[in-house]
């Protein structure tokens, strides 16, 4: 596990498969720098002809992703900083959406907030039984605005409403599978890796032109997301400066 304050991100390409692995000592949460690196990785891999598919994974055997960096949320002082931070998630989701290669999310543990958004943006997600999810943004006075289009696209507005309003409630992996966030749920990490490897190998064996055309087809109707997610980032950037949120973040810090 990485000990770097800004986290780590490594990309490996082998047999036409690119694996992106990110990590952060705070339960694989995302500071802005790490989000920017993730965005850049997807953009670069999209243009590599030797890459036919991508796996997104995180370090360790516990949390998949704890969402936004708590320390960076506390440090936001003005609207420009706030919007810039939430644009990190907006840009990463749009990079996944625009990437011409199919992307598998390997989800070995719990996901919160922005982590759920990243999973939803991937084209196929395989998880373990321990990969519960939660959208806890309302508890600190903001909301899952930036990730909503990706999550609602995958699980529907009714399930998104349940997940976002019950902000302190974990939904288990089988709930997430029933709603469409996870395609498969495996009993443990060993079985998870076998299934991810199997699917990735199959995807890499297909005609890359066909998989790229399919990816374009699957994402039809989302061409407005560059503008939409930027608008949502501004909403979140304003709310993070509210008295409610500042007080809530300080309470969590204590």
Any overview of this molecule?
The relative contact order is 0.15. This protein has 254 residues and is α/β, with parallel strands linked by helices. It has helices at 32-46, 70-75, 79-98, 114-121, 148-155, 157-165, 173-179, 189-205, 208-218, 225-239, 243-253, and strands at 8-14, 17-23, 53-58, 103-107, 111-112, 124-128, 133-134, 184-186. The model has no long low-confidence stretch (mean pLDDT 96). The protein has a single domain (8-205), classed as Alpha-Beta Complex (2-enoyl-CoA Hydratase, Chain A, domain 1), CATH 3.90.226. It is 50% helix and 15% strand. It starts with 7 loop residues before the first strand and ends with a helix. Strand 2, helix 1 (32-46) and strand 3 (53-58) form a beta-alpha-beta unit. The strands form 2 sheets. The protein has a 6-stranded mixed beta sheet, with helices on both faces. It has a two-stranded parallel sheet with strand order 5-7. It is globular and about 55 Å long. The chain is built from 11 helices and 8 strands. Helix 1 packs parallel to helix 3, helix 3 (79-98) packs parallel to helix 4 and helix 5 crosses helix 6 (157-165).
């Amino acid at each position: 596990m990485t000990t770097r304050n800004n986290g780590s991100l490594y990309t490996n390409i082998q047999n036409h498969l690119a694996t992106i692995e990110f990590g952060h000592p705070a339960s694989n949460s995302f500071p802005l720098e790490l989000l920017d690196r993730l965005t850049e990785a997807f953009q670069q891999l999209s243009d590599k002809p030797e890459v036919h598919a991508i796996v997104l994974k995180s370090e360790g055997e516990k949390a998949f992703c704890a969402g936004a960096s708590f320390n960076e949320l506390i440090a936001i002082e003005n609207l420009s900083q706030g919007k810039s931070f939430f644009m990190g998630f907006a840009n990463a989701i749009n990079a996944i959406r625009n990437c011409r290669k199919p992307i598998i999310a390997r989800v070995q543990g719990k996901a919160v907030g922005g982590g759920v958004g990243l999973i939803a943006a991937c084209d196929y997600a395989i998880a373990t039984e321990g990969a519960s999810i939660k959208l806890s943004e309302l508890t600190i006075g903001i909301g899952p605005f930036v990730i909503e289009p990706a999550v609602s696209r995958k699980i529907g507005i009714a399930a998104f409403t349940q997940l976002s309003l019950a902000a302190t409630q974990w939904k288990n992996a089988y709930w997430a599978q029933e709603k469409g966030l996870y395609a498969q749920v495996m009993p443990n990490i060993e079985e998870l890796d076998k299934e991810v490897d199997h699917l990735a190998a199959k995807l890499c064996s297909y005609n890359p032109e066909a998989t790229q055309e399919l990816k374009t087809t699957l994402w039809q109707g989302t061409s407005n997301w560059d503008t939409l997610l930027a608008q949502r980032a501004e909403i979140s950037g304003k709310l993070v400066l509210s008295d409610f949120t500042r007080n809530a973040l300080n309470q969590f810090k204590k």
